[in-house]
# Entry
Amino acid sequence: MHDLHGATPYPAPSSPHVRAWKLKVSGEIFAVISLPMGLGPHLAALTSAERSVVEHVLRGDSNKQIAHSRGTAVRTVANQLAAIYQKLGIASRSDLVVHVTRLYLQPY
# Structure
């Protein structure tokens, strides 16, 4: 496990693949959650290209950054996101992050 300098580990989440810390910066408290980048079987309905897009979204990449990284058009990324949202029954990028986070916080 990697240490986060100056951060206090939270109690172990229900999944051994997720780590969490509490970090205080300039008087504000932040929760930092570490998720594995491999999306595993939870998102089996997605194509490998769609899973790649999800990984980029989890990193905070924009559609333009994703397209550049993957060598595709921005419109292709937007279409893949629309397909991801439809398959997972969600409506937005933030829903996607919450959905994936919840998958990893559930015990296996």
Observations:
- Helices lie at 48-59, 63-70, 74-88, 93-105.
- The longest strand covers residues 19-25.
